[in-house]
Amino acid sequence: MAFEGISIESLLAVALLCAVVAFFYSNLGLGGGQLFVPIMDLFFASMVIREIIPLSLTFAFVTMLSSTITHSKKKLVDFRLGLTLTLGGLVGVAGGVLFTSNAEEWLVKAGFATLLVIVATKMIYDIYRKKRDNIVSPSEFTLKRKLAGVGISVLTGLLIGSFGIGGGVVSVPLIIYVFRFEPRRAIGTSALMGAMLTPAAFVAYVLNSNGGITIHYDIALVLAPLIMVMAVLGSTWGLQKLKTKVVKTIFTCGVYVAASEMIYSLLTR
């Protein structure tokens, strides 16, 4: 049995690993694309990066939607701020899709690997410094903060469209550092942004499929429900049991592993 040249063994391996990623990443306001893309790049060797990214967007969407639902039940989502930042992100999504659709394969992979290393290093730096988290979430913001937020939300959309991630690697730090939110509320609001921006990016890839991008709907339909269930379970469990520092450490280690795989792929293919 195969899905467009993909063996059932490879499909099962991707299903298992992506389910684990969704379980933990739903606690971080992240879609999991930082690991979904390298995992599929490793096991779906017949696919090019342009085919993997729409799949990653699908998985990131269900992960972040699950995270949004569970965080909103605890009143940990700022819908007004999330919707405002999403508008800026839509501009970035369009630019990101154009970049990936037209850039060379090696350039997309090199950019993705660089992003992973920067994100993981920044998180290790914060953990090492023992930076104290905010304990409140303001409801009013200065014009300077609003402008900074819109600018970085455009970057979030650019990364989503370019690399098939949920954008939380940018939006979570943005909401924490620029808007001074406490981490759990920042995570919930970031998940809302990703849940709206990832389907927009997916639609853009579908519209561009005539340009040579194949959308693997069969794989998406088989794996997305499993990933969504694991994301719901993970975010529900994490809100009750998991400390933020532990989640950050797990995330950082996983991102370094993903960066290593992407660099290996660049050097060997």
Walk me through this protein's architecture:
The structure is a single chain. The protein has ten helices and two strands; from the N terminus they run ββαααααααααα. By secondary structure, it is mainly alpha-helical. 78% of the residues lie in helices and 1% in strands. The chain has helices at residues 8-25, 33-43, 49-73, 79-102, 105-129, 143-163, 168-177, 183-207, 217-241, 244-268; strands at residues 2-3, 6-7. The protein has one domain (2-268). The protein has a two-stranded antiparallel ribbon.
Keywords:
269 residues, mainly alpha, globular
Helix/strand order, N-terminal first: EEHHHHHHHHHH
Main sheet: which strands, in order across? 1-2
**Number of distinct helices:** 10
The coarse silhouette is globular
Structural class: mainly alpha
**Low-confidence spans:** none
Terminal Cα span: 26 Å
Percent helix: over 70%
Describe the sheet with the most strands. Answer: 2 strands, antiparallel
Mean pLDDT: 81
Can I get a quick summary?
It contains 10 helices and 2 strands. It has 269 residues and is an all-alpha fold.
Structural topology:
Layout (H helix, E strand, L loop, with lengths): L1 E2 L2 E2 H18 L7 H11 L5 H25 L5 H24 L2 H25 L13 H21 L4 H10 L5 H25 L9 H25 L2 H25 L1
Antiparallel strand pairs: 1-2
